Amino acid sequence: MTCSNVLFLPLLFKIKKDPVFLQQVLALYLSPKNIHPTIFLISFIPLNKQPVKQNTVTVRSYALKYALLTGLILLSFLRGHGQFASPRDSGVTSTRQQAIDFLNEIKELAPSRAWPNIKPALFLQNLRTSVEQPISIYPGNGTNFCGYGALTYLFLRDDPLGFAKLLLQLYREGTGSFGKTIFTPSDPVKKTAGLLRFKGVLDIRPAEQLWFLCLADHYKGYLNFFNRHYDPDDEDSFWASVNYSKFNRMLRKLLRYKVKARGADLIRPRVGDRYKYISEKMKTGTVVLYINNRIVHKKNHVSIKLGFPTHFIVAERISLENGLITLIYWDYGSRTQLQLSPAFFKRVIYGITYCSKKGHDE
Amino acid sequence: MNKRPVTILIFPLLVLGLFSCSPKNITGKYYYENEQTLNRIEKSYKELYHQKPFTVAFTAKDFKTISLEIITDTLSYIYEFSLDESRLADTLVKYGLPAPGLLELIREMQSIRCTWVNMLDYYVDQKKNNMVFMSVKAVAVNPFSYKKYYILAYFSQPQSFDKNGNLLDKRATRRLRKINGQTFKRINDKVCYTISGHFR
Lengths: 362, 200
Prior knowledge:
The complex is a heterodimer of chains A (362) and B (200). Chain A is globular and about 55 Å long. Chain A is of the alpha+beta class and 362 residues long. Helices cover 43% and strands 15% of the residues of chain A. In chain A, helix 7 crosses helix 8 (160-173). Chain B has helices at residues 4-20, 23-33, 35-51, 86-94, 99-111; strands spanning 54-58, 65-71, 76-82, 114-124, 127-137, 149-154, 178-179, 182-183, 185-186, 191-196. In chain B, a hairpin with a 4-residue loop joins strand 9 (185-186) and strand 10. The longest helix of chain B has 17 residues, at 4-20. Strand 8 (334-340) of chain A pairs parallel with strand 3 (76-82) of chain B.
């Protein structure tokens, strides 16, 4: 039994004695958003015992409790923190061969009324390439699709058959469902897919265009607050941006992984030695890093760089030799090897997302 | 002492300073003033790239530190070197890059403050084409301006432009072509430019 389970024992006794308390527990546990364990524990401070006299001290303690609770709820939205099992983490993940066999059965694809600018043959060809070579996924030159790219790379490695079926359903019906997620892309998105230009090889990959646009259209975070509806060229704007919490939410909703996230959009992860933590996690699962790419791939010579993350990469291999960390990661359709000092490594990393299959987590 | 006349003098001078060297003034002339060197860099990069794909960027203001990306079929390697480091030449040899040609290219880039040179893919009617993308940290650009890089795009084939000299996607569509989110202006049929806040 883990430490957190022991903490819950006295609560079980209380639930037994007090049915109203049980009701509160269930309401909290079954609420649509995942709740941070700390919030869950704080919520057990008895609410049902109404004070006989509303003296100042009692009012203050209640006010304090609610302020704390609200603060933590807000914090849990801002930070990508938490360790929650995906609702879909049971069941078997598909193999690449299963997906190839499934796609091989489709000889010809009819034009889709939902996606007027997608050429069927090119769509099918793109889908085959994605399934056969997940590494080739390319989020596009100058777009804000990198988060969706990293998610798709993991999706294709874990469940290529699920991915192929979902994309074909989206193409044929204009909507698609995966687990509890139902994608209903907006009309502007449907008209744009297939027409994205000047984005490198993404120009000739309509299936990837469709998918990235669908993801950006469906999932919203606070960065998308002022631009929630697609307009031309919005793939390069805040409409497509992915904050850390949103990225982890997408992972939990779509993939059959247990997702454990450390770090935040503006606060670096408190995990001690980052190299040690990441290399340990990579032994049993996949690690996605949320990094400040502006200092890794400098784009200008400004001396003062803003310290916030901009890019998602999937860590593939990491080693430490002669005081230098060598990191091999996936992003933008290929693998890259980068050497950096531990201090610089610490500086660039804002989020560490660990994805594991059940039974592999610590 | 009355400071008012001094303030009156300084203010117009500042305003003049801000607008005297706007990006528009340098863009037309810059290419022709440095045409030979720029074209030499483009030609040399193209030749070297076809032997082994790579990109070079000057990452520090003093133009003494480079970021070298060596692209292979399986992996891209990113290294940062100070120009006086011996391991730069050693690395070039290790990865089979033509060291003398590349070192000469780097020297030439440094001489005109060329910050980045890269090969970009673009697609016309689903056919892959590529162009050399080059950025220069031009001194003449307004120091107060955010946009500090003069970007050149070298195409292999003649391109289409509208009547204002803007680069078009295709003659038929009249849609403006954007490279890295920027629209480009004509210098000649195969070369166009823009001014940007980023060198890549």
